[in-house]
């Protein structure tokens, strides 16, 4: 492989699929968007986009929100209106790990975690065992909600099947609970599994979908559910400061992302697998290529190595390749539609060069 030092310096940002820049089509749509005051309920571009998202997701209604964190928070609070409610969710889920504990600090909702398996699922028996018995209501929080995440980011972008989701939905229905899906990258799962997105969320009472991750919009997420759910969600969005006026400017870009970029996700997945195959050939690194199902690649540094993820990412940045440590022994790369095959080859050369430098020149820490 050609050495990174002999290659033309470029910038390849693999920290996340949230780093994409708006396309010309998005910018044009934003500039020409027909807008009104959405808080007053009259922005036509927002209405058109929300209606289309509801249709695609197979739900009655949809609501545009500024971020996925707000979308998940609103959804949990709608389902857990009584303070002291409890939600069952994965111990490695985005809601539990990366959203500032908002369901607790803002909503008074108690998280009850079940261990995530390596494929992002939770054991069905453990989910059911985590449900509080009504006879213990004097002592325990009241279980009202189960949350799933699809794809599961911390488990490497793994896809959750419709069959598994259906089983969880059956458990929820049996016990009178609601089911929310954090579907930040649900379209990645749909493409990878070859299953329509509405089928993946059929049994869910609510779903949050991020438009600014794999789909590449500059801002925003959407939550979908019943009309009653969305009516309550709209009120909470206002409470949390998420009501925006001429929001059609943002919805216009999100609409273009939905129209133009879903079809590009398959290529992202292929490039991620290509990346994983290349990383597997580099000494001192290990990667489970079978776990690369969508656009994320996690690799581990072998135990005997002196290389740390932080130092490796620092050296990569010197070559223009941006990545994020995932743990004390692993690094995460995320592919998106603005990353070319040439970028993948360049990044692989840089990783190989960085590993060689850190292994031989005594600067590993």
Short description:
41% of the residues lie in helices and 16% in strands. The protein has helices at residues 24-32, 44-57, 68-79, 94-98, 102-105, 124-130, 162-174, 186-193, 197-200, 227-239, 248-261, 265-280, 309-318, 341-360; strands at residues 12-13, 61-65, 85-90, 110-114, 142-149, 178-182, 206-210, 221-225, 285-286, 296-301, 321-322, 324-325, 330-334.
List keywords for this structure.
single chain, 365 residues, alpha/beta, seven-stranded mixed β-sheet, four-stranded antiparallel β-sheet, globular, disordered N terminus
As a percent range, the share of helical residues equals: 40-55%
Instruction: Outline the low-pLDDT stretches.
Output: 1-5
Biggest sheet descriptor: 7 strands, mixed
* Helix/strand order: EHHEHEHHEHEHEHHEEHHHEEHEEEH
Radius of gyration (CA) equals: 21 Å
Structural class comes to alpha/beta
Share of residues in strands: 15-25%
Characterize the overall form. globular
How many beta-strand elements? 13
- Number of H- or I-type helical stretches: 14
Give the end-to-end Cα distance, rounded to a whole number of Å. Answer: 26 Å
Oligomeric state of this protein: single chain
What's the rounded overall pLDDT mean? 95
Widest β-sheet, arrangement of strands:
2-8-7-6-5-3-4
Describe the structure.
The protein has 365 residues and is an alpha/beta fold. The chain has 14 helices and 13 strands. The strands form 3 sheets. Strands 2-8-7-6-5-3-4 form a 7-stranded mixed beta sheet, with helices on both faces. Strand 5 (142-149), helix 7 and strand 6 form a beta-alpha-beta unit. The longest helix has 20 residues, at 341-360. The model is unreliable at 1-5 (pLDDT under 50).
């Amino acid at each position: 492989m050609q050495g990174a030092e002999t290659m033309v310096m470029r910038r390849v940002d693999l920290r996340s699929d949230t780093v994409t820049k708006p396309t010309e089509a998005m910018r044009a749509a934003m500039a020409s968007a027909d807008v009104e005051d959405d808080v007053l309920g009259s922005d036509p571009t927002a209405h058109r986009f929300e209606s289309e998202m509801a249709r695609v997701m197979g739900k009655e209604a949809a609501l545009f929100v500024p971020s996925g964190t707000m979308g998940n928070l609103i959804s949990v609070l709608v389902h857990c209106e009584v303070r002291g409610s409890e939600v069952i969710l994965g111990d490695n889920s985005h809601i539990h790990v990366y959203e500032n504990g908002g369901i607790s600090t803002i909503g008074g909702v108690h998280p009850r975690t079940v261990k995530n398996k390596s494929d992002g699922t939770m054991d069905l028996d453990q989910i059911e065992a985590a449900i509080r018995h009504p006879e213990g209501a004097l002592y325990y929080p009241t279980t009202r909600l189960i949350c799933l995440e699809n794809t599961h980011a911390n488990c490497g972008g793994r896809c959750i099947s419709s069959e598994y989701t259906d089983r969880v939905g059956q458990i929820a229905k049996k016990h009178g609970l609601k089911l929310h899906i954090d579907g930040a990258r649900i379209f990645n799962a749909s493409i990878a599994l070859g299953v329509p997105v509405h089928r993946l969320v059929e049994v869910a009472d609510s779903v949050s979908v991020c438009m600014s991750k794999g789909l590449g919009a500059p801002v925003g997420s959407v939550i979908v559910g019943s009309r009653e759910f969305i009516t309550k969600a709209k009120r909470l969005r206002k409470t949390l400061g998420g009501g925006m006026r001429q929001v059609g400017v943002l919805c216009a870009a999100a609409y273009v992302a939905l129209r133009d970029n879903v079809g590009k996700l398959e290529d992202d997945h292929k490039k991620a697998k290509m990346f994983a195959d290349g990383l597997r050939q580099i000494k001192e690194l290990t990667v489970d290529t079978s776990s690369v199902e969508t656009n994320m690649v996690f690799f581990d540094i072998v135990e005997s190595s002196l290389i740390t993820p932080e130092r490796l990412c620092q050296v990569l940045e010197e070559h223009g390749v941006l990545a994020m440590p995932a743990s004390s022994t692993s690094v995460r790369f995320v592919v998106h539609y603005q990353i070319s095959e040439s970028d993948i080859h360049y990044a692989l050369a840089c990783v190989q060069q960085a590993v060689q430098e850190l292994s031989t020149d005594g600067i590993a820490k």
